Amino acid sequence: MSAIGNLIWFIFGGVVMGLAWCFFGFLAFISIVGIPWGRACFVMAGFSFFPFGKEAIARDELTLQEDVGTSEFGVVGNVIWFLFAGLWLAIGHLFSAIACFVTIIGIPFAIQHLKLAGISIAPIGKTVVDKEVAAAAHEANAAAEVANLRRRY
How far is CA 23 from CA 7, 86, 88, 115, in A? Predict the structure, then answer.
């Protein structure tokens, strides 16, 4: 089912926003300093091209380890990202979502655009995985949190 959704998505608009992510990724790579942002752009471009069956998740939630992108440096990087590119990508996804919401058949696509708009605000520290992997990570983190709460009480 996700293959059909991804094909329809790609043909009817996903390619435009995916190319927008690639555009900002190329701009980031040209600046040399922006290579970490460019890397995040290309990860999210792949997600924007084919979002069905995948989910964006924080890397520290997936690996249970903090890295540069999930630390305070990642927060600073996301603020810089938002000012230079994130706002524009979020606006693009919001307009695409509005266009999809107009038709009833486009509602699932509009929901994906809204998810991508949220991700475009702060993509540093996130990675894209299959929905099953994300669900397993969420479950493992919830179990660890419950175990911590039990130890406290």
Answer: 22, 12, 12, 20
Is the backbone of residue 67 left (phi > 0), alpha (psi -120 to 50) or beta?
Answer: beta
Give phi and psi for 33, each to the nearest 5: -65, -30
- pLDDT tens-digit profile of 56-79? 998 888 888 888 888 888 899 899
CA distances from 138 to 25, 101, 109 (A): 29, 29, 24
- For residue 114, the tally of other CB atoms under 10 A from its CB is 18
Task: Scan for tokens 């938002």, then name that residue.
Answer: 82
Evaluate whether 51 touches 38 at the Cβ level (below 8 Å): no
Whether the CB-CB separation of 53 and 6 falls below 8 Å is answered with yes
Task: Extract the tokens encoding 120.
Answer: 């475009």
pLDDT tens column, 43-56:
999 999 999 999 99
Tens-place pLDDT, residues 113-151: 999 999 999 998 888 999 999 999 889 888 888 888 888
Decide the pairing of beta strands 126-130 and 54-58.
antiparallel
Helix/strand/coil for 129: strand
Structural contact between residues 98 and 113, judged by C-beta atoms closer than 8 angstroms: no
